[in-house]
Design brief:
The complex is a heterodimer.
Chain A (H helix, E strand, L loop, with lengths): L4 H29 L19 E2 L3 E4 L9 E11 L6 E13 L7 E6 L10 E3 L2 H8 L9 E3 L6 E8 L2 E7 L9 E6 L2 E7 L6
Antiparallel strand pairs in A: 1-3, 2-11, 3-4, 4-5, 6-7, 7-8, 8-9, 10-11
Chain B lengths: L4 H15 L20 H19 L10 H11 L3 H28 L8 H25 L2 H12 L7 H18 L16 H13 L3 H10 L6 H29 L8 H17 L24 H9 L2 H21 L11 H22 L8 H25 L3 H19 L8 H6 L8 H32 L1
Helix pairs in contact in B: 2-4, 3-4, 4-5, 4-11, 5-6, 5-10, 5-13, 7-8, 12-14, 14-15, 15-16, 15-18, 16-18
The chains are: A alpha+beta, B mainly alpha.
């Protein structure tokens, strides 16, 4: 194939022209499909994904968890942006709060969203060790309880940490530890206020 | 203005292929006499039309809102005369369409229908299959039952992993640099993990923030019409479910109208037989309803539609970023493999690479689907076995292709085998869930006992078998030629 200098320059010139024309069409199209994004000119088109916001706080009493590995499931409400006439929808995120053992016996808690960071199924707290060993291919050390997801068999250990905090993946394909709720201990109360963003509800 | 020659070449190759466009085997009617598989094209058209017609009837009753969707399906299924039959025929017609597309694509690979500037026909068949997959997925959500909700959630979650492609590069950098320092290679790079922020690695993480435009998240939110599955999702899936088939139908009708071709090239008696089969399936196995969608409870066991089962099993085994990448690699293989098959040879046994790719694809899909249906998945010990299975299939393919192209030049065969085994072992003996070559090759567990370590016995035996077969064959063939 002949490829001369003049043609090379022509080809080079064509690239920005084609790019510009396609950008001219792509930007309004993306904004039509995702009305909350800004125009391409301000580079806001991909920068600001809609993040859900918490609706109300949930509180627990420390005395509700009398011993180590006491746990409670709860539902946390979040407001999600929706591109309809209503504009938003309230979604309930399943959560779990577990009292974990410490060396001096004082109560310590982990509060996780039960939405699996792998592909979004709802995982469970599985206190029975045989069930984990048989159903999820992971034998936890004696006395150790874990979370396990029924979809793709990921197992999370709340006593180990990874780069995103507690709940290291000890078995299965999940890429990271579960999404965490932000919470504060206020004397005898535990106040769960908001959720780390990520995943789909 | 004249176009530069590179555009001219592209234009010429596209025009050459456009001349040979074929949607439903309307140009291969004469081949039906010898090869009955050439009737798959008309069957594909018929099942598609059956699905469109029954779908148009269902639209009369269906209400696409999150409150009413499930109830209207119950009404269609149980209270409206012939509603269950129509819904069943819609579902089984779509399944039949997907089966017909898959079989036709296999026929195109086996009979080399893509040769002679006909690659575009394979692409058309593939995009029809994708249309089937997408319509199946979006159609499932419309029922608004448990499987629908969770299948959509899985489908919408994995584009999010596109945002991590850059970050994975950073972790690869971390592995390489730390390993260099461990060996004592002088380097100015600090051995600090990415999570604690070190040197070049921190820069890569920063770079990722700049080059990462939240493409994954934006894709999710465009798909779902917001940041969660809800009313906007149903509306979008419903509109696309209708629109894609309608646009496809218009394109196909325009093509047939302007080319004056016949759409349906088998006798209608055979056509009615297929419609009858779909209707019989709909009556004998009524389309299932499942339980109403509940975002708080994941049902157990949870299975996707039958055509995604194999992929679903793969997502159990492999780290999700890699799994997403492999999911994208499968369609790329189908679309671009034909362009590498430049010979004029049409017999499948004389095109070993195509043959073994086809066999491997079929075996993988069937084996993984069976495994997930039987709920067999030991994610710690299984991967070595299926990787070994893949190794055998690829090795046999290479063996035959070498025989094809190199005759009985045994040294060439031997070198290709050794090279292949070395490459594959490097890939296999990696950290199972990430696939970085360094950790597995250099870690302590390389020869250690365990599922991956035990595989060495297998590879040793396999390599010996390879070499013995080859030596025996070269001797045998040499004798035969001497006679």
């Amino acid at each position: 194939m002949k490829f001369e200098r003049r043609e090379f320059i022509k080809t080079l010139l064509a690239i920005p022209v084609i790019g510009g024309i396609s950008a001219l069409f792509i930007s309004p199209f993306v904004r039509f499909l995702k009305p909350s994004s800004g125009p391409l000119a301000t580079a806001e088109i991909f920068k600001q994904p809609d993040k859900p916001s918490p609706v109300r706080e949930i509180s627990f009493g420390v005395s509700d968890f009398p011993e180590n590995w006491s746990f409670k499931y709860f539902m946390f409400q979040e407001s999600n942006r929706e591109y309809t006439s209503v504009g938003e929808q309230i979604k309930t995120i399943p959560g779990v709060i577990v009292r974990t053992p410490t060396s001096d016996g004082s109560p310590d808690f982990v509060v996780f969203s039960r939405v699996c960071p792998h592909l979004g199924c709802v995982f469970n707290f599985v206190p029975i060790e045989e069930e984990v060993a048989k159903g999820y291919n992971y034998a936890p050390p004696p006395g150790q309880k874990v979370f396990a997801c029924p979809c793709h068999l990921s197992v999370y250990d709340p006593m180990q940490t990874d780069t995103k905090g507690r709940g290291k993946v000890v078995s299965g394909p999940a890429p990271r530890s579960p999404f965490k709720f932000n919470f504060v201990r206020n004397g005898d109360r535990i106040l769960v206020s908001s959720l780390e963003s990520g995943g789909i509800s | 203005m004249e176009l530069p020659s590179i555009f001219k070449a592209v234009k010429k190759s596209v025009m050459d292929r456009l001349k040979n466009v074929d949607f439903f085997d309307e140009n291969f009617v004469d081949k039906q006499v010898d090869n009955v598989w050439y009737k798959l094209g008309p069957i594909q058209w018929l099942t598609w039309i059956v699905t469109i017609v029954t779908g148009a009837i269902l639209v009369a009753f269906y209400v696409p809102t999150s409150e009413q969707a499930y109830d209207t399906i119950i009404v269609i299924q149980e209270h409206i005369p012939f509603g269950g039959l129509m819904r069943g025929m819609h579902k089984y017609g779509a399944d039949a369409f997907i089966i017909a597309c898959t079989l036709k694509m296999y026929r195109m690979f086996i009979c080399a229908d893509y040769k002679g500037n006909r690659e575009l026909n394979l692409w058309i068949c593939f995009f029809l299959l994708l249309l089937g997959f997408y319509s199946g997925l979006s159609g499932y959500l419309l029922i608004w039952n448990q499987r629908a909700f969770w299948a959509t959630k899985v489908f919408a979650t994995f584009p999010g992993y596109m945002d991590q492609f850059g970050l994975n590069l950073a972790f690869l950098g971390e592995t390489v640099v730390n390993k260099l320092i461990e060996w004592g290679v002088p380097t100015s790079l600090p051995a600090i993990p990415v999570s604690e922020g070190g040197g070049i690695l921190l820069d890569m993480k920063l770079l990722n923030q700049y080059i990462n435009f939240n493409m994954g998240m934006v894709t999710q939110q465009i798909l779902l019409g917001g940041s969660a599955i809800g009313q906007a999702t149903i509306t979008r899936f419903y509109s696309m479910h209708l629109a894609l088939s309608t646009i496809g139908l218009i394109v196909v009708e325009l093509y047939f109208y302007s080319n004056k071709k016949k759409r349906f090239n088998i006798p209608w008696s055979e056509g009615f037989l297929i419609i009858f089969m779909i209707a019989a399936a709909a009556i004998i196995f009524p389309a299932e309803m499942g339980a109403r969608a509940n975002p708080a409870v994941t049902p157990l066991p949870i299975l996707s539609d039958w055509y995604f089962l194999a992929l679903y099993q793969m997502y159990k085994y492999i780290e999700p970023v890699l799994a997403t990448f492999i999911t994208m690699l499968i369609p790329a293989t189908v679309l671009f493999l034909p362009f590498f098959d430049r010979s004029k040879e049409k017999s499948i046994t004389k095109r070993p690479i195509i043959m073994w790719t086809a066999i491997m694809g079929a075996i993988s899909a069937i084996a993984f689907s069976v495994l997930i249906i039987l709920n067999i998945a030991n994610i710690n010990t299984d991967p070595p076995y299926w990787v070994a299975g893949t190794t055998i299939l690829i090795a046999i393919g290479i063996y035959f292709s070498q025989k094809q192209y190199a005759g009985i030049n045994r040294w060439r065969l031997l070198s290709v085998h050794v090279l292949f085994l070395a490459l594959y072992l490097m890939r296999v003996h990696t950290v199972p869930y990430f696939g970085l070559p360094l950790e597995g090759m250099l870690g302590d567990g390389f020869f250690a006992d365990g599922p991956w370590g035990r595989m060495w016995v297998f590879y040793g035996g396999f390599a010996a078998l390879h070499i013995l077969t080859m030596l025996w064959e070269s001797k045998f063939l040499a004798n035969k030629e001497a006679k």
